[in-house]
Amino acid sequence: TIELVSMQFPDPHFKSRHHKRRHVQPRLVREMATTLAPGARVFLQGDVPEAVRWMRDMIEAHGDGCFALAPECINQPGLIRNEWETRQLLLEGDCDAQEHGEPFCDQDEGCEKSILAPQLPLGWSIDATAGWLPENPLGVPT
């Protein structure tokens, strides 16, 4: 039984046309949702906020309700709110407009539509009591 999936310091692939190369995509999230046992944890860590928000938002949007923020990420002293919220995302077909923030394009469908548009706003991102942990809770040096 898999108890923990740890995704640390992914390559951010900043250019919109390369977002399909990011390792957390809808298909992976759906497979994790059906494969992981209840109570399994997904640990996300990185040094590029955009890349970590991408992973978090993909998991929320495509996890079919199988994932929740860990209790230690909600309503706790010391949580970091900087770079927590996801900006309003692009509408359909506007995947290269960098001025709007972060486009989320499904690699199977190209940039024809945003894969998060139906789920906006993302609840985890706008939860004023939630935030990033200041330290790695797994007790493992990074």
How is this structure best described in words?
- The chain contains three helices and two strands; from the N terminus they run βαβαα.
- With 142 residues, it is an alpha+beta fold.
- Helix 1 links the parallel strand 1 and strand 2.
- Helix 1 crosses helix 2.
- The radius of gyration is 15 Å and the shape is globular.
- The two termini are 25 Å apart.
Q: Identify the overall geometry.
A: globular
Distance from N terminus to C terminus (CA atoms, Å) equals 25 Å
Which structural category do the helix and sheet elements fall into? alpha+beta
Count every beta strand, where a strand is a DSSP E run of 2 or more residues.
Answer: 2
Strand content: 5-15%
Helix share, percent: 10-25%
Work out the helix count: 3
Mean pLDDT across every amino acid position: 77
| Biggest sheet descriptor | 2 strands, parallel
Poorly predicted sequence stretches spanning 5 or more consecutive residues: 88-113
Oligomeric nature of the chains = single chain
Strand order of the largest sheet: 1-2
Radius of gyration: 15 Å
User: How do the helices and strands follow one another from N- to C-terminus?
Assistant: EHEHH
